Automatic annotation (TrEMBL):
Transmembrane segments: none annotated. Residues 47-429 form the Mannosylglycerate hydrolase MGH1-like glycoside hydrolase domain. It comes from Thermopolyspora flexuosa. Keywords: Glycosidase, Hydrolase. GO terms for molecular function: Glc3Man9GlcNAc2 oligosaccharide glucosidase activity. It comes from the Bacteria. GO terms for biological process: oligosaccharide metabolic process; protein N-linked glycosylation. InterPro entries: 6-hairpin_glycosidase_sf, 6hp_glycosidase-like_sf, Glycoside_hydrolase_63, MGH1-like_GH. The lineage of its organism: Bacteria, Bacillati, Actinomycetota, Actinomycetes, Streptosporangiales. Belongs to the glycosyl hydrolase 63 family. This is Mannosylglycerate hydrolase MGH1-like glycoside hydrolase domain-containing protein.
């Protein structure tokens, strides 16, 4: 454990126990304020539309006190599912002005894509955590009719990834843009992004009008993000020649772990509604084996992303490499090694794990996904630890509660001081705090 994290560990014991009722009420207020009537926005300022994996996490937090909203959250998102099965990372609200967010619907031009829905959306995806969310919503507020309605849509989402996003033929699902990872600005993407030509932005960035520029991706990063999205859009959002026509094709451990965990959750859903869980269980086992074979680095005791264009592993200590702990079939010895890494390099005894391990050359404690701690990755680790190391899971849950009680429902946090960064009243920070409170 690094010295700053050791110091943080000594401070956590002196933090006063949060007023749980007040924290719960504050989280409900945030989620109520971010509810639009059909779905939630991650924040009213920086993110004024519906985001894919945000909605999954938000639905989990809604389920304990507003289960009908939780179900509507997911069903509204899947109403914008493309005919090929992809679930877009943004569903644009027609009531929000174009200039409120960039890149907006005029940039993505989803209406020109043959498989797109009527709703205006982006053309890329995000980690498929939605089956996990649907099952969690049902556990908290049982409703088989909801499961029967969303199950085929979740299956179609997985089928899209399975048939369109496995270009290397090795069983790994690929992302074609850093935004698809959910961890947009991770140092893990620096090497493959460096090969992407950057051109000056023609549009003004809206994000840095709401958040300090030193907490957001650089202009150079944004230029490359826009270049990748433009090329994918201009190619009709096709996936048939990924390795020949795309400049960024990466197998991400978080994304693949979410895919595998979704199959395990779909097995539970299928069994609950009278379906056959076996195909889902077999797929979950298969992707776990493939991830261990292709992405686990025994020297680093961590899963690494792999650049599928070069075949190279990307040797970056990202918290994404710990997320395979959510896979039910992960071998026990691999899980133990990941847990050791989580303790020694990511300091989970001290609080929320940083998004990138301290001491790395690209570490920045306040810049988006390059060091700050996030509630959603902590929640995923908590989810993975509950059946493996209950005492660590409890410690991580208490850290989520203490951080949000101390600094509010911020987008992300300094991993040493817990100072909040990014936007205020962030949806999944409130929602997942509620979920760990409900599980106490």
């Amino acid at each position: 454990m690094t010295a700053p994290l050791r110091a943080q560990a000594s401070r956590t014991a002196t933090v006063a126990a949060p007023a749980i009722d007040d924290l719960r009420e504050a989280a409900v207020r945030v989620l109520s304020a971010n509810w639009t009537g059909t779905h939630s926005v991650p924040s009213r300022t920086l993110y004024p539309h519906q985001w894919s994996w945000d909605s999954a996490f938000i639905a989990i937090g809604l389920a304990g006190w507003a289960p009908e909203r939780a179900r509507r959250e997911l069903l509204t998102l899947f109403d914008a599912q493309w005919r090929d099965g992809r679930v877009p990372h943004i569903v644009f609200s027609p009531s929000v002005p174009e200039e409120a967010y960039f890149p907006g619907p005029a940039f993505w031009r989803s209406h020109e894509a043959p498989a797109a829905p009527r709703a205006a959306t982006s053309g890329i995806v995000q980690p498929p955590v939605h089956a996990l969310a649907a099952w969690r919503v049902h556990q908290l507020a049982p409703d088989r009719a909801f499961l029967r309605e969303i199950y085929p849509r979740l299956v179609a989402q997985q089928e899209y990834l399975r048939t369109h996003r496995r270009p290397a033929g090795d069983g790994l699902v690929a992302i074609v843009h850093p935004w698809e990872s959910g961890m947009d600005n991770s140092p893990a993407w620096d090497e493959p992004l460096a090969a992407v030509p950057a051109e000056p932005l023609r549009e003004r960035r809206r994000d840095i009008t709401h958040v300090a520029p030193d907490e957001r991706p650089t202009d150079l990063d944004y230029q490359r993000y826009v270049a990748l999205a433009t090329a994918y859009r201009d190619g009709g959002y096709r996936d048939d020649r990924l390795l020949d026509e795309h400049a960024f094709v990466v197998a991400d451990p978080l994304f693949n772990a979410a895919y595998g965990a979704a199959e395990a959750a779909l097995a539970d859903i299928a069994a609950e509604i009278g379906g056959d869980p076996c195909p889902h269980l077999e797929e979950a086992e298969a992707v776990t084996r493939t991830m261990v074979d292709r992405l686990f680095d025994p020297a680093r005791n961590l899963f690494l992303a792999r650049d599928l264009l070069t075949g190279k592993a990307l040797p970056v200590d990202s918290v994404a490499g710990l997320i395979p702990l959510i896979l039910p079939d992960l071998p026990g010895d691999i899980a133990d090694r990941l847990i050791d890494t989580a303790v020694t390099r990511f300091g989970i005894y001290a609080g929320l794990p940083p998004s990138y391990a301290p001491g790395g050359p690209a570490f920045e404690r306040a810049r988006y996904w390059r060091g700050p701690a996030w509630v959603n990755t902590a929640w995923l680790l908590w989810h993975g630890l509950r059946q493996r190391r209950a005492e660590l899971a409890t410690l991580l849950a208490e850290s989520i509660i203490r951080v949000t009680a101390t600094s509010g429902f911020r987008e992300y946090f300094d991993p040493f001081t817990w100072e909040g960064h990014g936007c205020h009243d962030f949806g999944w920070s409130a929602a997942l705090t509620l979920d760990v409170l409900d599980a106490r």
